[in-house]
Amino acid sequence: FAKCSLLLTFWVVVRRRSQVVRASQPLFLIMICIGTLVMGSAIITLTFDDEIYEQHALDIACMSTPWLGSIGFTIAFSALFAKTWRINRLFRKFSRITISEADVMQPFAILITANISVLACWTILSPLHYERRNHAGTDGWNRVISTYGTCTSYNSDTDEYEYGEVPYVVLLAGIAFFVLVIANFQAYQGRSLATEFSESKYIAIVVASMLQVMVIGAPLLVFAQDVPRTLFSVTSMIIFITCMA
Question: What gap in Å lies between CA 209 and CA 205, rounded to an integer?
Answer without folding.
Answer: 6
